[in-house]
Amino acid sequence: MTTSDNNNDNTEVEVAVAEKQSLYERIGGEAAVGAAVELFYRKVLEDYRINRFFGQSDMEKQIAKQKAFFTMAFGGPNSYTGQDMRTAHAPLVKLGLTDLHFDAVMEHLGATLVELNVPAELIAEVTTIAEGARNDVLGR
Amino acid sequence: MFKLTVNDQNYSCQSGETVLDALLRQQVKIPYSCKKGSCQSCLIRSADASPPLSAQTGLKNTQKKSGYFLACLCHPEQDMTIRLPDHLPKYFQGEVIAKELLNSHTLLLTLALKENYQFNAGQFVNLQRPDGLKRCYSIANIPQEANTIEFNIRCLPEGYFTSWLLNELKVGDQLAVSEPRGHCFYLPENIEQGLLLVATGTGLGPLTGILQDALKNGHNGPIYLFHGARKIEDLYKIDAMQQLAATQPNFHYLPCLSAQETVPEGFSSGRVNDVVNATLPSLKGWRVFLCGHPDMVNQMKITAFLKGASINDIYADAFLKSI
After folding, report:
1. What's the pLDDT tens digit per position in B122-173?
2. Which helix (H) or strand (E) holds B69?
3. Which of these, B252, B290, B253, lies nearest to B273 by C-alpha position?
4. Is A85 left (phi over 0), alpha (psi -120 to 50) or beta?
5. Nearest-CA distance B21 → chain A (Å)
């Protein structure tokens, strides 16, 4: 990650980034996101517990969403706020989205990273970030 | 410092600056979001210079070949002329040289272009009639020395444009053809790779173009073409495809009929998606081309992906009906 972004509100983040490579960089950046989405989306579509929440109509849109999700979970650049996550998932909450489904997604996230030989300590960091979205996704 | 040209205006790109940052600094409106190459919001096209490979990370191979790149990842290596997504296409003059019916409702239209016209089989264009009305159709042949291009056009009885094509347009008339667009085409690489081509209706047009292109380039992996229609009279080019399958050992043609009571020998019964599903157990490592009805295309994308085809190996064109 470069530190040349014109993002003046984030001086603290920039200092931290300058000190050590970001999680996103260490995990492999865009290429890692692409590889992870490929594995993850296949697992999700094959999982009868949750595939109905991953609309089966427009694959490109779904893949763009998965990429955004992984970019976020890898601590990478993203422009999503907690409120965005709430709004985006509200229709799914109405359809009955619960902790059980979120757990299933977390399970596939972990399995995907293991399959990609991501070191355990990085998987733990990713899991923590993704967990942080739980309450927003479930709308509470 | 390099020069960026957008809509005939020149902008500067300073050293260390990305194309996205340079254009934003100079108030050019361009969509973007993550600025890190993930979201692909800032996908634009170079009309002349080949973009740096590093700016094409994550794109489909056909997009790379067409000069697409991510503005946020691009540090120019030379001056570039850039096409933004809302760029108006250039038009070429075409002359109608043949009109022929392929079945009761499918027109084969052949145009000859005056200027040299470059395209890849499977791309699509706008055809525009003199009053400005235009429609989008896929090219159904490979580039010819005579600069001719073919289209397979489904004639809708209620369609303004297709009624005009069918009833009023004559051989010798002029028709404007836009520059080609779209990423659903064949690239001559991995010629041993399996190719799956699935069409419904006039989706066969671009796929026969892609098929010709693959064979011309010596593609020697298995090639399966599935063509779906309701009844046998809704199919076309049956004889040509059967003959090709008889002479080309790696090519397999499977016409599928979803609403035919008695399905003759050599045809499969059922929807094309189901026939593909039953015929090919795995698509791991395959390249997949899908053209035709949006429902078929959307379902087949998922099926192909779940059968192991990689996201970037699935090329699709959903045909939307406009009257």
Report:
1. 999 999 998 989 899 999 999 988 899 999 999 988 889 999 999 999 999 9
2. strand B68-70
3. B290
4. alpha
5. 9
CA distance B69 to B81: 12
Cβ atoms of residues B255 and B235 within 8 Å: yes
The residue of A37, A59, A70, A81 whose CB has the most chain B CBs within 10 angstroms, and thus the best one to mutate to test that interface, is A59
Note the pTM of the prediction, 2 decimals: 0.83
Q: Dump pLDDT digits (tens) for B215-257.
A: 999 999 999 999 999 999 999 999 999 999 999 999 999 999 9
Give the ipTM. Answer: 0.73
Q: Please report the sign of the dihedral spanned by the C-alpha atoms of residue B65, residue B71, residue B75, residue B80.
A: positive
Tell me the CA distances in angstroms from A42 to A127, B306, B314, B318, one per residue in order.
19, 6, 14, 22
Shortest CB distance from A30 goes to which of B38, B306, B314?
A: B38
Q: Compute the distance between CA of residue B240 and CA of residue A127 in angstroms, rounded to an integer.
A: 56
Length of chain A: 140
Interface of B with A in 272-301 (CB under 8 A): 298-299, 301
Tell me the C-alpha distance between B7 and B3, whole Å. Answer: 13
Residues 6+ apart with CB under 8 A from B320: B294
CA separation for the pair A46, A50 (Å, rounded): 9
Q: Which residues contact B185 (CB under 8 A, 6 or more apart)?
A: B62, B120, B121, B122, B123, B210, B213, B315
Give B-chain residues touching A71 at CB under 8 angstroms.
34, 36, 38-39
